[in-house]
């Protein structure tokens, strides 16, 4: 299965506008308020160590919003096909999708808290200028990246948060085989499967992590989606989760194109810009 090439696709500006909508929590009223009420102050205090204009802050909020949207879309798919998820997966989906995906949102907000859990980790991740390849501590960064999920889960133990949320955070890098090997992650929790997809797409869109942890050129939306879909099954992504993401992207694409069409129809009859006193009218391009 591949991401369908839509008409007029391929524009970086259009991809950016579309993905901005995909990662937006607009229309998901109250999720941040519920997060602040549900997550212990100790955890929120750790998150406040990340400056609002830092890349990691945008990653946290973007992954949170998309995780909530995926959880709600999966719940919609489950209503249409009750056998889609069974047993523990079905129970976990009920938790994650309740209240417009509030717990899925919270899980996304805290999934990388291990990156700011110690002074050493903060030094490594918050001072990252963007290109790991040029840093002398590149190997140390790679090792820290491989242990940050375990550190995140450790921070959340004894927090009173649902165990499904903590397990989702712990295993959200299961496709890469850490913090444990594949043999120990035979059936990753649903939360981890949702986080893995949301985290991966956001990283491809914004950070473009390369083979050695460095940053590479941003790829088109179609290339990013094809990359995700090519890793379905086995030790990769859950096909049901990537299908939910694909549905969301297509829905946003349709809304985006309708908005563009309306904008064009509203301006199609305009011949000139408004005339200001003392100035000649100028043709629209």
Quick overview:
With 285 residues, the protein is an all-alpha fold. Helices cover 59% and strands 0% of the residues.
Number of domains: 1
- Figure out the total of helices: 11
Helix percent reads 55-70%
Low-confidence stretches: 5-9, 208-216, 269-285
Radius of gyration using CA atoms only? 21 Å
| CATH fold label | Hypothetical protein af1432
- Please tell me what the overall shape is: globular
Main sheet properties:
none
Briefly note the structural class of the backbone: mainly alpha
Distance between the termini: 40 Å
- Average pLDDT confidence is 80
So, CATH architecture?
Answer: Orthogonal Bundle
CATH domain class:
Mainly Alpha
Instruction: List the helices and strands in order.
Output: HHHHHHHHHHH
Say how many strands there are. 0
Strand fraction band?
A: under 5%
According to CATH, the homologous superfamily is Hypothetical protein af1432
